[in-house]
Amino acid sequence: MIAKANRLRNADRVKAGQTLIIPIPESEASPSVPTPSTTDAVAVVRAARERLIPEALSWSEVQRIFPHNTVARVMDVETGKSFRVRRYYGTLHADVEPLTAEDTATMKSIYGQWSWQRRAIVVEVAGRRIAASMNGVPHGNGAINDNDFAGHFCIHFKDSRTHNTRQVCPDHQAAIQAAVRAFSSAAVTATEQSPTQD
Predict the structure, then answer these.
(1) Per-residue pLDDT reduced to its tens digit, 133-178
(2) By residue range, what is the domain housing residue 182?
């Protein structure tokens, strides 16, 4: 049976390392596995979309998920670049620091030069993807001494406020919504490209 499946003229002459097909007798074969239906494929795409779209969680919720001294990954929506941060402090929003000098270099490459410009980001922490906004200027104090970053920078979440004015910053909130929209658009495109039912 092996000789026939592999078209061997002489079954005694199999070479070391040769790939062979091992047929399974029909009596031992398992029942055929059904192919997934179009409905199943659409459900898989929708589930993937739900995991892709970041949550726009309120600051009060985020504080429980992202407490002081917690490490998270920040992904810049526009460039797709990501780096790690540690939450340093912050009561009205998250004051964070790049974890290492390499993380600082990645952050700097996103901005080009340090800037107060708000950028749409996704913060990945505790198994969650959270829509957020960051600025890119080292300021104030920090706790990590060997990360090439003098101080901390700010990450804002839905309804968080600035320490200066104690008000919600419209520019940060717009960047948070941009993060959600960017991934929602990508997910809708993926769903539209999935097979449709006949």
Answers:
(1) 999 999 999 999 999 999 999 999 999 999 999 999 999 999 999 9
(2) 52-192
**Closest C-alpha among 191, 190, 184, 188 to residue 53:** 184
CA 173 to chain centre: 20
* Whether 104 contacts 149, CB under 8 Å: yes
CA nearest to 112, candidates 78, 146, 84: 78
The β-bridge relationship of strands 71-76 and 115-125 is antiparallel
Q: Would you state the structure tokens that stand for residue 124, as one six-digit string?
A: 């990945």
Q: How many domains does the chain have?
A: 1
Q: Which pLDDT belongs to residue 23? A: 64
Q: Quote the pTM value.
A: 0.72
Nearest CA among 138, 21, 37 for reference residue 88? 138
CATH number at residue 129: 2.30.110
Cβ-proximal residues to 15 (8 Å cutoff; 6+ apart), any chain: none
The predicted pLDDT at position 122 comes to: 98
Is 24 inside any structural domain? no
How far is CA 161 from each of CA 35, 54, 165, rounded to the nearest angstrom? 51, 20, 8
